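dumping this here so i dont lose it
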């Protein structure tokens, strides 16, 4: 990528200049490492100002590629819009992250089993979004998996795989149905002790949706926003392109950059869940870090689940849900929700062909369509 970059006085923003000719961007982080983003600019694009802004939030590297709408667009206006978007991401993280002891999520986890806790609108929104996915996936996506995450964290690197009986008391504290949200009073109450909210499977999607709204309000119509390599929100399309090109890499051979699938997205979001990099090891065997809320066990059968939806909050949550649900249930979900597309790679070892759901031959490169 051409151009220089630097940190500003705050030490968090990085900026590249606008003279971008060819960009092939690979992002890796602790969550996934197999989504490759490609943008080939045209002569028309060379006349438009482009700004790239990077930011760290939610323990993830965020990036925004912003296009001006004409050659007269002020590049500084693009930067200002991008920074405003990331300020919204930071504000959201401050209020909903369970890693921050003074957040509304942390407060709710501590006190909501005793009495209703008054929270921010952000927490009400993300809980309502999570409940929609929880309901439509029959509980495959559940933001109350905090106790499960802690259970398996304590057993990671152990010698003996836990027995199912050990999970029974943990499962008593799992279930979004036990979380009562009063939207009018803006309160949250837990009907059972020990419930712990964890928005790790949906927060990045909501953050990118928030950022996209801020950019739209500031006149930006063409942008690609990504949270690490797991979630992307695409606004419009680069000049001369039908959409933003995304290559899905193999979850088995991350050193090989040959994609197992290539898609174009426009005014959509894409998320991938996998255990390519992040996983747990017990007794010398590798297990997924994504857990089935019904059984409490690490999810199995899927190596990677990529989902494309109209919003980031949907794609983020559904990629986790489909990883748990498996091919047939994901296929049934997509049949009932035509706006949702999916690319699944089954856990059958290297060479597994991607399974495309709700795709046409025009918008997929390889694999079997369901």
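and the seq i came up w/
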């Amino acid at each position: 990528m051409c151009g220089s970059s630097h940190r500003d006085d705050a030490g968090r923003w990085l900026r590249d200049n606008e003279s971008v000719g060819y960009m092939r961007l690979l992002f890796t982080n602790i969550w996934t490492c197999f989504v490759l983003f490609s943008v080939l600019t045209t002569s028309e694009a060379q006349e438009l100002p482009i700004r790239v802004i990077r930011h760290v939030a939610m323990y993830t590297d965020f990036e925004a590629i912003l296009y001006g709408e004409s050659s007269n667009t002020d590049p500084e206006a693009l930067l200002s819009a991008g920074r405003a978007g990331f300020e919204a991401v930071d504000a959201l993280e401050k209020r909903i992250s369970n890693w921050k002891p003074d957040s509304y999520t942390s407060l709710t986890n501590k006190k909501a089993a005793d009495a209703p806790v008054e929270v921010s609108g952000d927490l009400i929104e993300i809980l309502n979004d999570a409940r929609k996915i929880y309901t439509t996936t029959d509980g495959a996506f559940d933001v109350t998996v905090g106790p499960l995450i802690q259970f398996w964290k304590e057993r990671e690197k152990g010698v003996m795989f836990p027995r199912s009986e050990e999970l029974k008391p943990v499962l008593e504290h799992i279930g979004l149905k036990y979380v009562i949200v009063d939207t009018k009073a803006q309160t949250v109450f837990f009907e059972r002790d020990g419930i712990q909210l964890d928005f790790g499977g949906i927060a990045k999607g909501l953050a990118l949706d928030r950022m996209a709204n801020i950019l739209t309000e500031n006149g930006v119509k063409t942008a690609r926003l990504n949270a690490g390599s797991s979630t992307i929100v695409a606004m419009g399309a680069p000049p001369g392109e039908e959409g933003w090109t995304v290559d899905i890499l193999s979850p088995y051979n991350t050193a090989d950059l040959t994609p197992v699938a290539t898609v174009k997205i426009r005014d959509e979001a894409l998320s991938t869940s996998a255990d390519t990099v992040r996983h747990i090891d017990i007794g010398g065997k590798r297990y997924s870090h994504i857990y089935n809320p019904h059984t409490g066990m690490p999810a199995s059968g899927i190596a990677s689940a990529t989902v494309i939806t109209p919003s980031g909050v949907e794609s983020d949550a559904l990629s986790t849900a489909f990883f748990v649900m498996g091919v047939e249930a994901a296929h049934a979900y997509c049949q009932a929700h035509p706006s949702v597309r999916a690319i699944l790679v089954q856990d059958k070892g290297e060479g597994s062909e991607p399974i495309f759901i709700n795709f046409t031959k025009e918008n997929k490169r390889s694999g079997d369509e369901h």
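Confidence is low (pLDDT under 50) at residues 1-45, 365-370.
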